[in-house]
Each structure stands twice: as C-alpha cells, then as structure tokens.
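Whether sequence alone determines local backbone shape is best considered at the level of individual chains. Part of our work consisted of pairing the sequence of a single chain with a tokenised description of its backbone. This step matters because it turns folding into a mapping between discrete strings. For completeness, the protein is quoted in full, as a sequence line and a line of structure tokens:

_____
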Amino acid sequence: MSKKFAVVGLGSIAERHRRNIRLLWPDSKIYAVSSSGRVPQGEIANCDELLDSVESLTAKSIDMAIVASPAPFHAPHAVALIQAGIPTLIEKPLSTNLEDANAILQCAAMPNNKVAVGYCLRFLPSALLMKTLIKDRKVGQIVNVFIEVGQYLPDWRPTKNYRDTVSAKAELGGGALFELSHEFDYCQWIFGELSLKHAYLRSSSQLQLDVEDIVDVVATLPDGALVNIHLDFLQKKAYRNCRVVGSHGVLNWDLIHNSVSYCDGNGDETIYSEAHWDKNQMYTAMLSQFVTAPTNQASSAICTPAEAFNTVHLIDSIKNSCAVLSDNQK
C-alpha cells in the first residue's frame, strides 16, 4: 500500500519536502496544505491534492505530516496533527515563543505520539563525525568553541525581494536568531547545554530590516568551556565554521565544504573532506530516519521536541537579555 504524506505550507522548504517525498516514495500520495487557507495561483509541484486546512487531513489516514508553515504558526498546525495521531515532523524552529513551544512539547509527550523537529544540519556527514570526535575527546579538554555563520540575505532567494521574505519579517519568525538557529541546535547537540552569559543583537543599515541581522553570543558549556557564537545576514561570501580549541589540539569544521581537520603539535591533518556531497541528502536522510524510527524513540541524529524546546528557550533568553540596536544607536 502506498504511503500518504501531507506538507503544511507552500514556501520553498515545503516545496523541497514534497520533492524529496516523491523521490523517496514515488508511489506515495502527497497532500499540500495552504497554511493560511489561501488558494495559490498556478500549479503546485509534487502535489496530488491541495487542501485548505490542517483539520481536513484528519479523515485522510495520513502516514506522516510535515509542518513547514511560518514558525509562528507551527503550534496550531502541529498540535492539531499530533492530537490526530499523525506522525509529525516540524520544520525548525519548534516555534517562536515559549508558550507555543511548550504546547507542542506537552502534546508530543503523550504516549504513542511520534514527533521530531527538522534541524537537518545534524545529517551532514561532517556533523556526525564532529559529534563522534567530541564524544571521543579528540581535542582533550575543551577550552573554547568558536561558531560563526554569515550568509548575505538578498542571495538566499534571488527571485524574491529579500524584504518580503519570512527571514526579514518579525511577525513571521524572521531575524538571524531563528533563521540561523541551526547553530544553537548543533552546538547543544554536540557539546552540551549552553548557559548564556552575554548577548548583543544588532540591526544594520545595510539591509534596513526591523529584525536583528547580526547576533553575537557568549555562553558556557557544563564543564566551563567558553562558547562564542556569531550569526549574520551580511557576509557576501557564505561562511559557516566551528572551531574547537582543546588541551590536545584544535578541530576545524567547515560546514559549507563539509570537511573536518585537526591540528596539534605534529601538524595538520584532514580527517574528512567531501565538498561536493549533495546537501539535499541531509533532508532525505532526515525524512527516511523519521519514517523508520520507532514511536517516541530518538535516533542518533534526529532532533527531539525537547531538544528543540531548549533552543527556543535559549533564544528567548537572548532576546530578553538585550534590545536590538540599529546602526544609529551604537
């Protein structure tokens, strides 16, 4: 019997998920659900039937649903699906406020529910390797972790005015904190829970947004190691890197080039490098693992609702610790 999938939302990430479902399960039936109830113009790719509400899915015997609506709407969509007993993968972040995130978390905790959150960077081969290397204490005692991501927002979706995208709108969950929350997720997944010490949010004059486009965070790990995290929408050449300084040596993880290198007193060593690895495989691996994972049992990589809640909690703490400063306030 062919599987039935539903994808809530009609944006670019929803389109990717529908395409990947068709790739992995060619005979499946795919329902697309408009998150706003608005019927779009034109054909929707990889869609067998368009529905105007999440509630209409409950009579369809869905095998799996993906919530890919704007983040502020995740809670009503996800809760309805979970309560209907439908295995649900929620795009990152879990939500944009603690109340909604907690509502999803409590619903997901009920027996026999199967829920996960789509932090796909965990499925990058170099990410899985980094987690193993840190667990095996490759660098010894960790002293510092430096995490940086910079990507020029107007280049993210070249066919659209960046000011009109979800990333640029506070009411849709935009801003660097939520849009680049992958860094907070993988940091806590690999190294442990972060304790916030300082944060600095800025809105530059370059993009003229009403959300933060530069974020700098200082936090500590449970063992006292210091973590510096920088996020921005401004770097014209995309950069995504994690550098770990330890008592035995230094690990350098280049997420864009999918590589990990190690340096100590004996010189430099490339442990892994596969720059041309197809990054869409992160998404397909995540989908496959979610479908095959037992109910309420976390796999080695997939993000649980509790882990995703911790990321929302951290972001909430960062937002509450400081105001967003514009260029003319510095």
